[in-house]
Amino acid sequence: MSEHVVVDVLKAVGLFFLNPVWLVAIFAAVGLGYFRVKNERRSFHVRLHPGLTELKRVIKESWLPALLLSLVVSGVGLTVDVGWLVLLSGIAIVTMLTFYYQVASPIYATAFAFFGLVAVQQFVGEITVRGWSLTSIDFMSEIAITIPVIAGLLLMVEGFLVGTAAHYASPFLTKTKRGLRAAAFKTKRLWLLPVIFLVPGDFLTAFTPYWPQFTVGATEFSFIPVPIIIGFSQVARASFPDDLLPKMGRVIIWIGVLVAAVGVLAWWMPIMGWVALVIGVVGRAALSIVVAVRERHGGFVGAPQSTGVMIAGILPDSPGEKLGLVPGECIRTVNGIQVSNEKELYDAIQVNAAHCRLQVIGRDGEVRLMQQVLYRHDHHRLGLLVVR
């Protein structure tokens, strides 16, 4: 008997890691890195971060929020329907394959999966798969509470992740209305959260008879680990990413708090769960639209300056990063020489190949002096990506 238990548990774990969502997420993360590097090389002839950065961070940044979310969802006893989980995973796969991450917020997937099941039940009727029946779902009962609350929690996690995503914003050059080239910044991220959900019924026993279950009253429950996808895409040109994204993250968190709070009201009035999901979708979409319009019609913060050379990006571990330079600052002089373009910047650096002195105009307009010792292995242009 024990051998059967071990085999079934290993089989279930294997099936979990072979979940199509995992496989598509790996493909999508590699694709994100490839296209980012391609765009950076097109603008600056060099990439900012290695091409596998997105793949390495797809779980690294999200495993702790996923653990906390799993503890809350399972600990409080927020049960979900297995059909909803399947539809949620299908929506995630389609979203990742399109690479259109403006609609990859978890509120869209959770709400569309919920209302998708409602529509199928209404217009199709009976669907039965290995003991699971669509007609057995009551969308005006417990599921109307748990899914909105889970959607709100996922929005809070999204807000936290978005607020910390500015460090990996990718600069690129684009034309202004006056025909000049200016820097803009694109943040396109994908996070995968292995979340453990609590599912009522014995659906898993059809596949793995020895999968752990527990019983409360007359109802059996199973813990099912499911990969949840959170995607984000935003172009910043009227604001710097380290100013814009933390603000967006805070707003997303508050939308999540509102969705979860309204979802709790469904305990007394089930229709409020439906309202909570609609509030989440409308609020998240409104935020994306407002930010996109504001960034599209605002001026370029990375526009070229007559006073010096505008910094668009800094390579990691380069002399520029050690100097504390940040995108949006303007280099006025190098080693006492006035510079106005990339060639003059490079020539001025070579005046003193062992020691570099910069006069920099900060984002706030303040002028400061900086200096850095240069070593043989250091980047010959301080590791700076500049507007040219």
UniProtKB/TrEMBL annotation:
The keyword Transcription does not apply. This is PDZ domain-containing protein. It comes from Sporosarcina saromensis. It comes from the Bacteria. InterPro entries: PDZ (IPR001478), PDZ_6 (IPR041489), PDZ_sf (IPR036034). The keyword Membrane applies. Keywords: Membrane, Transmembrane, Transmembrane helix. Residues 290-364 form the PDZ domain. The chain crosses the membrane at residues 12-37, 58-76, 82-100, 107-124, 144-169, 190-211, 223-240, 252-268, 274-293.
